[in-house]
Design goal:
0% strand; single chain
Length: 69
């Protein structure tokens, strides 16, 4: 149970970093995070920080947005 709580807190930190980094509302940040589920899962398994994970998601999101312009 403790591991699950720690994971949920870590995911919440990612969402918060995405909100601020992308200047989006919480629900948009959650959607962006959910779309990168594989990246988040791998980051969790490797013990990566929430900040680094959010930065990777932001970088991926920015790259994808640029490709569609």
């Amino acid at each position: 149970m403790q591991a699950l709580l720690k994971f949920l807190e870590w995911e919440n930190e990612i969402t918060t970093h995405l909100e601020h980094g992308l200047k989006v509302c919480r629900s948009d940040a959650q959607g962006i995070q959910d779309a990168q589920r594989l990246l988040v899962t791998r980051a969790s398994q490797s013990g990566q920080t929430a900040r680094k994970t959010a930065d990777q998601i932001i970088q991926h999101n920015t790259t994808e947005a640029s490709r569609h312009d």
